[in-house]
Amino acid sequence: MKILMFNYEFPPIGGGGGWVTYFLGKHFVSVGHQVTVVTSQFQDLPVNEIVEGMNIIRVPTLRKSPDVCAVHEMMTYVVSSTYYGHSIANDFHPDIVQVFFGIPSGFCAYWLRKVRKLPYVVFLGGRDVPRINPDPACYRWLYWLLKPVIRSIWRSADQVIACSYGLKQLAMQTDNKLPITVLPDGLELDRFVHTNRPLNSSCIRILTVGRLIPRKGFQYLIRAVPKIIQSAKYPFKIEIIGDGPYQVELKKLVHQLRIGVYIQFSGSVDYEELPRKYHRSDIFTLCSSAEGMPLVVLEAMGAGLPIVASRVQGIEDLVTYGENGYLVSAGNIEEIAEKIVALINQPHKRLQMGRASYQKVQPYDWKNIAESYLEIYQRSIGRKIEQ
Question: Please, which residues bridge with residue 107 across strands?
Answer without folding.
Answer: none
